[in-house]
Design a protein that fits this description.
The chain has 353 residues and is of the alpha/beta class. The protein has 13 helices and eight strands. It folds into two domains: 144 residues, Rossmann fold, CATH 3.40.50.1970; 187 residues, Dehydroquinate synthase-like, alpha domain, CATH 1.20.1090. 51% of the residues lie in helices and 11% in strands. A hairpin with a 2-residue loop joins strand 6 and strand 7. The chain binds nicotinamide-adenine-dinucleotide. The site of nicotinamide-adenine-dinucleotide has 29 residues, from helix 4, strand 6, helix 5 and helix 9. Nicotinamide-adenine-dinucleotide binds next to helix 4, strand 6, helix 5 and helix 9.
Length: 353
């Protein structure tokens, strides 16, 4: 066994169908009596349901969460928390809503109770992001890590198939890059492999029966494990590329992960053979890059960056973005190979193993 360092994050997790009804006890457990409930505009209904469950402990609903946490939205939510003298935040939604809660927590040091409705995994990380002047700045701060996560798989039953699949691939990406992270350790490896296994086995069952309760539950469980990996170790080329081109060209977050993952893994495959073998075993395919491409294709996912808004004439700029700020990666960053990666992902080709 090689030497390693592993820090655990203290998070309380309530998992299972019907967990939403336990939000009140969890808010009380944290000693909160005046919480602000956050959601996106489209899911205000969810937030109002939470406020109803909380009764007098819910002081207000703020339903303006949007992708990538624009600074103005963060300021507006923080002002609402101040106005209502909030002593806690309940965020119900995907990564955008959790991200908004983190922005408020960063400013006011309020505890967060996260109720995730996608597989993005932000609820399990101390990572925050804020967008100002078109640039997304990210950082890590223990203050933004939710104190409690309430996973109720019934909230994911209405996730549209394509979005749900892309979000599941976003989760698999956290685990996949965790397996070749410079600071990986035996515990994060276990979490990553089990997380990918749970998700890869759930996806085909959800395709056949979108309301398959066990499959939905398995996928959410896997998303938690994969998110925990993201929160514990450093990410590499795949996440940096998604972040850079998603932000610059306004591409949808989960779908960008889904289109790029087979190709970023193909890029790194020769320099991360042990990780690739673990991924292949976890998803029960002969190879990690083509196996994930096949999983995506078989389940009707979007495969090509050109189908989610990247123009061919933007590929060269995307290559420059990938090269811009050096970061640890198993394989050195090479301009010509990165260009091939992006051309293949743009066209949605099956990666060559
Ligand atoms: P999202 O939260 O923007 O949700 C995508 C869309 O799905 C929204 O329109 C939302 O209303 C809808 N939606 C959410 N749950 C639904 C449900 N159950 N049923 C039907 N529709 C639903 O997207 P996301 O992919 O969850 O999160 C992406 C954001 O999270 C990005 O900004 C990304 O950078 C961030 N993120 C951060 C971390 C972190 O650790 N900080 C980790 C992962 C993602």
């Amino acid at each position: 066994m090689d030497a390693f360092t592993y820090s655990t994050h203290a998070v309380r997790v309530i998992f299972g169908y019907g967990s939403l009804s336990r939000v009140g006890e969890e808010v009380a457990r944290l000693g909160c009596t005046r919480v602000l409930v956050l959601s996106t505009p489209g899911h205000r209904g969810h937030a109002e349901r939470v406020a109803y469950v909380l009764g007098s402990s819910a002081k207000a609903v703020f339903d303006r969460a949007i992708m990538h946490v624009p600074i103005d939205t963060a300021r507006a939510a923080t002002a609402e928390a101040r106005r209502t003298d909030a002593d806690g935040i309940v965020a119900i939604g995907g990564g955008s809503t959790t991200g908004l809660a983190k922005a408020v927590a960063l400013e006011l040091a309020l505890p967060i109770i996260a109720i995730p409705t996608t597989y993005a995994g932000s609820e399990a990380t101390p990572i925050y992001g804020l967008t100002e002047g078109g640039l997304k700045r990210t950082g890590r701060d223990p203050a933004v890590l939710p104190k409690t996560i309430v996973y109720d798989p019934s909230l994911t039953l209405e996730l549209p198939h394509l979005l749900g699949f892309a979000s599941a691939m976003n989760a698999i990406a956290h685990a996949a890059e965790g397996l070749y992270a410079a600071d990986r350790n035996p515990v994060t490896n276990l979490l990553a492999v089990e997380g990918m296994r749970a998700i890869a086995s759930a996806i085909p069952r959800m395709t056949v029966h979108p309301a398959d309760r066990d499959a939905r539950s398995d996928c959410l469980y896997g998303a938690w494990l994969c998110g925990t990996v993201l929160g514990s170790v450093g990410m590499a080329l795949h996440h940096k590329l998604c972040h850079a081109i998603g932000g610059r060209f306004g591409l949808p977050h989960a779908e960008t992960h889904s289109c790029l993952l087979p190709h970023t893994l193909a890029y790194n495959a020769s320099c991360a053979t042990a990780a690739m073998a673990m991924i292949a075993r976890a998803i029960e395919r002969p190879s990690a890059p083509s196996g994930l491409h096949d999983l995506a294709r078989e389940n009707g996912a979007t495969l090509a960056l050109r189908d989610i808004g990247l123009r061919e004439d933007q590929i060269d700029a995307a290559v420059e973005l990938a090269l811009a700020n050096p970061y640890p990666n198993p394989r050195p960053l090479e301009r010509a190979a990165l260009r091939s990666l992006l051309i293949n992902a743009w066209a949605g080709e099956r990666p060559v193993d």
